Amino acid sequence: MRGAVPRLSLTLLAAESGARLCAIIHYLVRGQLGWFGLTTACLVPGYAAQLLSILWFRADGHTPGCWLLALHLLQLGLWKRAAPDFPKPGCASRHGGSCRYWDVLRAEAGGGAGELLAQLGDVCVLRLLEALLQTLPHLLLQTYVVVAVDPAGFIPGVSAGLSLLSLAWALVSYSHFTCLLKPGHLSPPAAVLLCLLLWRTGMLGTRVLALVLFARLYSFWVFAVAGVHWLLMSFWLGAQQTDIVAQPCRWRLFNCLLGAVYVFCYINVRPGPSKTRVAVFYAVST
Predict the structure, then answer these.
(1) Cβ(258)–Cβ(236) under 8 Å?
(2) Residue of 232, 235, 212, 208 lying closest to 222 (CA atoms)
(3) Please, where are the H alpha helices in 30-112?
(4) d(CA 256, CA 162)
(5) In which domain, by residue range, is 72 found?
(6) Which has the least CB within 10 A, 1, 5, 129, 140?
(7) Does the residue 151 lie in any domain?
(8) 93/139 Cα distance (integer angstroms)
(9) Distance (Å, whole) CA 146 – CA 148
(10) Within a domain: residue 267?
(11) Which residues sit opposite 283 in a β-bridge?
(12) What are the φ and ψ backbone dihedral angles of 97, each rounded to 5 degrees?
């Protein structure tokens, strides 16, 4: 199971990236420059995750060279990290750089569980950040195209579907990582991960479809509805006194950013039972 989660993450990442590229080419060939520009613009927020990856490489003591910078410029930085399993002897640890994922995937044994967990944490956090900043806007845009502009559009539909699946799996892999962090917890079985994937996919799919249909009927009023939801979630997070970020300014910024995420999905950021918080989230969201 340790290697299955990163392999599936890589597969979905490759499929999503390929479908996004096909959508960009599709709009360019058909002369739909407006949708081409918007789809291309959805790539820009993803550079935040690439920048964070470079900063982590520097923090690990690994000086980014031209090749590494080129990979991140092409948004392939996660492929450098993206499949941490048992590292080979001689490969760098979490605190000394990262091994190439294709080398790591072929490794059979070796390394400690702490190093493995640290590498897995890097990838899960970076992938979740990239999914929320890049995949989610692309999903909204392609879903709107399919619903309101070109219902018979095959390539936008496939791209939207793969983006939805990839975003849902990014949330599942993050939950899988947080589960491994708890003392005494083992890797969840495949059936549990499948149920989580179905839950996340259904939750995200219905939320995105509802917002797109509302935007089609009421145009820009959708921003007002989403803005009210964002404010409610941000104030709710502030009332919980989430102590992940110590500095007051950064704490407020964190709550605002997470409040925007809560417009679409719930992410547990506090230790302990979350049943009450999930119930409140769904009560407000519905």
Answers:
(1) no
(2) 212
(3) 33-41, 47-59, 66-73, 77-81, 101-106
(4) 28
(5) 3-84+99-221
(6) 1
(7) yes
(8) 35
(9) 6
(10) no
(11) none
(12) 100, -175
pLDDT per residue rounded down to tens, the chain (286 residues)? 556 777 788 889 999 999 999 999 999 999 999 999 999 999 999 999 888 888 887 877 777 788 888 888 888 877 765 433 333 333 344 444 444 344 334 433 445 555 566 677 778 888 899 999 999 999 999 999 999 998 888 999 999 999 999 999 999 988 888 887 776 667 778 898 999 999 999 999 999 999 999 999 998 899 998 999 899 888 888 777 655 666 667 777 878 888 888 889 888 777 666 778 888 788 877 6
Give me the amino acid identity at 133.
L
Return the residue matching tokens 């975003």.
167
Q: How many domains does the chain have?
A: 1
CA distance 130 to 133: 5
| 166 belongs to a structural domain | yes
Residue 242 falls inside a structural domain: no
